[in-house]
Amino acid sequence: MDKANELIVLWDNTRKGAEDSFALLHHQLYPRLFNYALKMIKDPDLAEDLLQDLFVKFWQNKCHIGAIKNVKAYFYRSVRAMMLNHIRSTQLKATKLEDMPEPELEFSKEELMVSQEHESELKGLLHAALNKLPAKQREIIYMRFYQELDYLQIAEITGIRYQSVVNHVYRAVQILRESANLSNIYAA
Predict the structure, then answer these.
(1) d(Cα 102, Cα 123) in Å, to the nearest integer?
(2) pTM, whole model, 2 decimals?
(3) DSSP states of 113-160 as a string?
(4) Residue-level pLDDT at 99
(5) Which residues lie closer than 8 Å to 44 by C-beta, 6 or more apart?
(6) Are 1 and 64 in contact (CB under 8 A)?
(7) What is the DSSP letter of 69?
(8) pLDDT value at position 77?
(9) Among 96, 102, 126, 134, which residue is least crowded by beta carbons within 10 Å?
């Protein structure tokens, strides 16, 4: 079976609710779609976020989309449309921001000191929460957010599956969000 027909079969199975087929489809198309998106917006984190959002929309609307004759082309067109919409939206927001007058703000030394203390406390709590993560999640979080590696690079380095890397990052971020100490800081 050639690549195009394989993608059609994966999409048809996805429409029927087969998560494993969608995961394979994601795995096969994501790297090249990411590179394509990156060429358009030049921001790897943003490209990754927008692309993940697009895949979520594909999954949520799989029954409404229907059969696709050229899956690869359909996904590329969808990425292109999403990136162009984002660029237009960003340009519109930037234009609106440029038209706004700049407020004249001056902070007192006390306000700056309180802000620095608060930031220092927050960093300490974040480091403590990170140290409570399991070693594998801590390592993957370090590679993802401190070394700014993408999921595919982390998968290659650690030798674990791409989807496992995504799952580790998701779970670790959930744990950090649910950390009682951090939620108290953000609630203030």
Answers:
(1) 30
(2) 0.49
(3) HHHHHHHHHHHHHHHHHHHTS-HHHHHHHIIIIIS---HHHHHHHHTS
(4) 64
(5) 38, 148, 150
(6) no
(7) S
(8) 86
(9) 102
Q: Identify each DSSP E strand in the chain by its residue range.
A: none
- pLDDT value at position 24? 93
User: Residues 25-56, buried b or exposed e (16+ Cβ, 10 A)?
Assistant: bbebbbeebbebbbebeeeeeebbebbeebbe
What is the rounded CA–CA span in Å between residue 151 and residue 154?
A: 5
Residue with tokens 């290659």: 156
| Residues 73-114: tens digit of each pLDDT | 888 888 888 888 888 887 776 666 566 666 666 777 777 787
Give one word for 114, left, alpha or beta, with left for phi > 0 and alpha for psi -120 to 50.
Answer: alpha
What is the pLDDT at residue 188? 42
User: Cα–Cα–Cα angle for 83, 140, 160, nearest 5°?
Assistant: 90
CA distances from 41 to 93, 139, 175 (A): 16, 28, 31
Whole-number pLDDT of residue 126: 78
* Regions in the chain scoring below 70 on pLDDT: 1, 93-105, 180-188
Spatial neighbors of 60 by CB under 8 A, at least 6 apart, are: none
In this structure, the number of other CB atoms found within 10 A of the CB of residue 106 comes to: 5
